[in-house]
């Protein structure tokens, strides 16, 4: 079925924090969405919570007018997983991040859903290949990893296993893009792209705190106002290209000396610098930056950062972190 068709029936299995937010997005976009949870009262309580929360979000201007009513009419609560998935075309598995629970729930979904229903796991880090072992007809199974909070963060990772059919990947991408999200196809690896990087950052941040070199608040203050301030616009490769790859290579010499192998200079960086590619200033770099457009790129960057600085001033500090 064409996943842009609003007749596509959605089931969300696991109506907690992420599943609930995803269900709101589906219903706001005009899909009918059935919620299932560990039992019927939990699913019904989730439905009521999600409608109340949508009313609140709409009143705050966070959801467009009419959203709460669309969510009220689009969401229903099922008696069981089996009932929820029986008529569904697209099933989101959003139960807790435990392989045993996911294996059990995926097997129950497969036992009751239609042969052509697409099944999408929201796992944060478990390789899709290992979950696919619990799915019958694994060609209709993939990872569709939403970020927290689901209604507001645009990026969604799409992760095929070696069995996922190209048609299923295409239809999931169409569905997610049609919700106004930004789907990105990524390789199946533990933590995919987003969490592998996010957990690496947390690892190094924790190390500094454990070594007594910074408090968690100091780390957060520096991250969100320095290099993290760039991240809404540029990823690590564009940032390196703009900073200068020769500068990065020089920086790594100090890191490798201080921290050893975990900060060894990446081979792909050394190779580029040796070939005379220093990023934006020479043209090229990891993201293929065009040196002849450097002035435009820098002007965009400056506008973006000035606008973000203004937004942060307007919003004020995070409540509770004022001092
Ligand atoms: N919280 C996040 O920031 C975040 C972000 C991205 C992805 N994820 C992933 O999304 C998934 C869900 O996380 P969450 O934060 O929404 O968890 P959650 O605990 O808020 O929700 C899980 C829901 O599953 C239900 N559940 C538990 N066992 C069940 C079963 N056997 N059958 C049916 N329902 C069952 C729970 O009652 C609960 O409502 C996990 O895989 C998690 O890693 C979480």
Distance between the termini: 54 Å
Quote the average pLDDT.
Answer: 96
The whole-angstrom Rg is 23 Å
Percentage of residues in helical conformation = 40-55%
Mind explaining what this structure looks like?
- With 323 residues, the chain is an alpha/beta fold.
- The chain folds into two domains: 9-185, Rossmann fold (3-Layer(aba) Sandwich); 215-315, N-(1-d-carboxylethyl)-l-norvaline Dehydrogenase, domain 2, CATH 1.10.1040.
- 50% of the residues lie in helices and 11% in strands.
- The chain has 14 helices and eight strands.
- The protein has an eight-stranded mixed beta sheet, sandwiched between helices.
- Strand 7, helix 7 (166-178) and strand 8 form a beta-alpha-beta unit.
- Helix 1 crosses helix 3 (67-74), helix 2 runs antiparallel to helix 3 and helix 12 (245-259) crosses helix 13.
- The longest helix is centred in the C-terminal third of the chain and has 22 residues, at 294-315.
- It binds nicotinamide-adenine-dinucleotide (NAD).
Attribute tags:
2 domains, 14 helices, N-(1-d-carboxylethyl)-l-norvaline Dehydrogenase, domain 2, 323 residues, binds nicotinamide-adenine-dinucleotide, 11% strand, alpha/beta, eight-stranded mixed β-sheet
Strand-helix topology:
Elements: E1 9-13, H1 17-28, E2 32-36, H2 40-59, H3 67-74, E3 75-77, H4 81-86, E4 90-93, H5 99-112, E5 118-121, H6 128-132, E6 141-146, E7 155-160, H7 166-178, E8 182-185, H8 194-210, H9 216-225, H10 227-230, H11 236-243, H12 245-259, H13 267-274, H14 294-315
Helix pairs in contact: 1-2, 1-3, 2-3, 12-13
The structure holds nicotinamide-adenine-dinucleotide.
